[in-house]
Amino acid sequence: MTITALTPRALPGGKLVTAVTYQRVSTREQAAKGGQREGFSIPAQRTANQRKAADLGAEIVAEFSDPGYSARTMNRPDLQRMLRYIKTHQVTYCIVHKVDRLARDRLVDLQIHSALIEAGVALVSVTESIDETPSGTLVHGVMSSIAEFYSKNLAAEVTKGMTQKIASGGTPGRAPIGYLNVRKQDEQGREYRTVEVDPERAPLIRWAFGAYAAGDTSVERVVADVTARGLTTVPTPQRPSKPVTTSGFFKLLRNPYYIGQIRYNGAVHEGSHEAIVDVETWQRVQRLLDSRARDEVRFRKHEHHLKGLLYCATCKSRLQLTLARNKQGNRYAYYVCSGKTSKRTNCTRKAVPVGIAEELVAACYKRIGIDEATYNALAQQVDTAFDERLASRSQELAELVSNRKRLEAEREKLINAHFADAIDLETLKRHQDRIRAGLADIDRKLENDHEEQAGQRQHLGSALKALTYCASMYERSDDQARRLANQTFFERIYIGEDEEPHAKLAKPFASLAPASSSLVGCSSKTTTVEARGLEPLTSSLQSWRSTN
Question: Which one of 17, 67, 176, 416 counts the least CB within 10 Å of its CB?
Answer without folding.
Answer: 416
